[in-house]
Amino acid sequence: MTDKFTVYLVDDDPGVLKALSRLLRAKGHDVKPYSSPQVFLEEHDVGVPGCAVLDVSMPGLDGLEIQRVLTVANGYHRPVVFVTGKSDIPTSVRAMKAGAIDFLTKPIKDKDLFEAVSRAEARDAESRRLHSELESMQAKVGTLTPREREVLTHVVAGRLNKQIAGDLGTVEKTIKVHRSRMMEKLGIRTVADLVRMAEKLNLSR
Amino acid sequence: MTDKFTVYLVDDDPGVLKALSRLLRAKGHDVKPYSSPQVFLEEHDVGVPGCAVLDVSMPGLDGLEIQRVLTVANGYHRPVVFVTGKSDIPTSVRAMKAGAIDFLTKPIKDKDLFEAVSRAEARDAESRRLHSELESMQAKVGTLTPREREVLTHVVAGRLNKQIAGDLGTVEKTIKVHRSRMMEKLGIRTVADLVRMAEKLNLSR
DNA sequence: CGTCGAGTTGGCCCTTGGGCCAATAGGTAC
DNA sequence: GTACCTATTGGCCCAAGGGCCAACTCGACG
């Protein structure tokens, strides 16, 4: 149903690795199989849209460890689906609390795996969309001078130019100029849009 | 550490019920023990700040069923902590996916239960705060006339009075009046606040 | 039929926002 | 030192927001 979505598959059992790879490839996914968690982490690229399907218990690095590492990144969370042959409830609960998409026990039903990967794909797409939106906004805010940024926060707070001038120890005219340049740089025309942007970036506080 | 926080405790085992009750009461919580899921659901009051601690497997209504019922409400989700003597991974995963705070296996460590209830309390408080905030805002929006509401959406969209007038087939003066009355009724003074309110209420679309 | 709320509109006037042009001052980079 | 960026300020003028008072229409309610 989809393509250009990469599934990072990590399982120390070559048989499982092969079987799941075939299954997911048949579904149209781009699969990258790893029998070693370490190698996976080295080659893993957060820039690629995709999800991780991890065996819970592996020698060296177990699935939960990997999940933690993947989560640390920069706010972006690589969606993780766990598969396991032998595990326990506390482990599954910990995984889910940490944000796992699903926690499947072997024997794994194809349908369950597909659904999990599908949800992972949706979440990944959404989080990428959000993330890139925030990035582009932050990039624009980054081009603002310190003064312009101050004015921005005051405008978002709903203060009048005159009041902002008072707060910043200058005159209204100066604020108008900063304000105008600020809006220009942000590529925004209305205060409404400015407020929405500021809300998303948490610039209100 | 806290009080006036109610723990609805539901377990068909009288012994467990008694033990957990004592434990939670000692911690300062107001505990309402039920050995019957049905009775619990009948007496349950979403208006009371608290959480539910449910046994997963019970005759009649199992824990997951109860969780589903508690979730249906009106957008408010009663935080649920599961306790179980005998369960399996798929069940725990389903519970966590459905938003459970935690899924504890017996023998339950006091510390785990306390932490779970504590997190449930935090979540409950937060969701109540959010909910009441939304309610009061919606109540105010409810006092608006249809026309005022239309104007609201246009203002939030960043449109000028003149443009709004064009869209609504009237003149700028009329929009000014609606706009003024609208702000007055909402108890809001700045466009910035209006936008933030609209965002929270999803009035932008 | 009279009252009332909702929707309209006009006029008047003041405050704000914002664009354009010009100019000054301090600091930094080449 | 010259060029450039950032911050400032002034003047001029026009557009937009918004308060106050008054008035009109229409449909619903008694």
Index terms:
homodimer, 205 residues, alpha/beta, Rossmann fold, Arc Repressor Mutant, subunit A, 2 domains, 5-stranded parallel sheet, 9 helices, 57% helix, DNA-binding
Furnish the topology, listing elements before pairings.
2 copies of one chain form a homodimer.
Chain A: E1 6-10, H1 14-26, E2 30-34, H2 37-43, E3 50-55, H3 63-72, E4 80-84, H4 89-97, E5 102-105, H5 110-142, H6 146-156, H7 161-168, H8 172-186, H9 191-201
Parallel strand pairs in A: 1-2, 1-3, 3-4, 4-5
Helix pairs in contact in A: 6-8, 6-9, 7-8
The structure holds a DNA duplex (30 and 30 nucleotides).
Quick structural gist:
By secondary structure, chain A is α/β, with parallel strands linked by helices. Chain A is built from nine helices and five strands. In chain A, helix 6 (146-156) packs across helix 8 (172-186).
Please, could you describe this protein's structure?
The structure is a homodimer of 205-residue chains. With 205 residues, chain A is of the alpha/beta class. Chain A folds into 2 domains: 6-132, Response regulator (Rossmann fold, 3-Layer(aba) Sandwich); 142-200, Orthogonal Bundle (Arc Repressor Mutant, subunit A), CATH 1.10.10. In chain A, 57% of the residues lie in helices and 12% in strands. Chain A has 9 helices and 5 strands. Chain A has a 5-stranded parallel beta sheet with strand order 2-1-3-4-5, with helices on both faces. The first copy, chain A, is elongated and about 75 Å long. Chains A and B meet through α4, β5 and α9 of A and α4, β5 and α9 of B. The structure holds a DNA duplex (30 and 30 nucleotides).
